[in-house]
Design goal:
two-stranded antiparallel ribbon, alpha+beta, binds zinc ion, about 80 residues
């Protein structure tokens, strides 16, 4: 796991804590549902081909795309 992933996970956990406080204190009970778009992952991992700058040889890499439906949370608010 890279530094980027760790930082991202920390940020997401902080966001989750923030949401819990917000929803618990200010908005009454809120129902959170697993995001259907990303299946609760919050991100899509897309396989891409990258060409080396020097030699021009291709290699596989993974591009991380934040889910637009839940903004990377993996959860969406569900209105009862
Ligand atoms: Zn999503």
């Amino acid at each position: 796991m890279s530094m980027f992933d760790k930082e991202m996970q920390k940020a997401l956990q902080a966001d989750g804590e923030y949401l819990r406080q917000m929803t618990g204190e200010d908005h009454g009970p809120t129902y959170l549902a697993t995001c259907q778009e990303c299946d609760g992952e919050g991100f899509f991992y897309k396989r891409i081909t990258v060409y080396e700058a020097g030699c021009g040889l291709p290699h596989d890499d993974m591009e991380v795309i934040q889910c637009g439906a839940c903004g990377g949370w993996g959860l969406v608010e569900e209105q009862p």
